[in-house]
Amino acid sequence: MKKTASITLRLDSDLLRAVKVRAIMNDRSANGEISAILRNALESEKASEPASNPDASDSE
Question: What are the φ/ψ torsions at residue 5 (nearest 5 degrees)?
């Protein structure tokens, strides 16, 4: 099981409503939907980086 961490996230009401609608459509909680959105964005960003980019490290 992966370790998890908690954060407080402030979203404007329109954005939260959109996340909740999307979460319902994907049969997830709002938290699960936000996690999926972030994971997909990071994977997409990583996939679009050039393979020889020396700054593309996972040291964060």
Answer: -130, 155
Decide if 30 is inside a domain: yes
- 25 or 56: which carries more pLDDT confidence? 25
In this model, does residue 36 exceed pLDDT 70? yes
Q: Containing domain of residue 35, as a range?
A: 14-43
- Tell me the three-class secondary structure of 1-60, residue by residue: CCCCCCCCCCCCHHHHHHHHHHHHHCCCCHHHHHHHHHHHHHHHHHHHCCCCCCCCCCCC
Q: For residue 28, is it within any domain?
A: yes
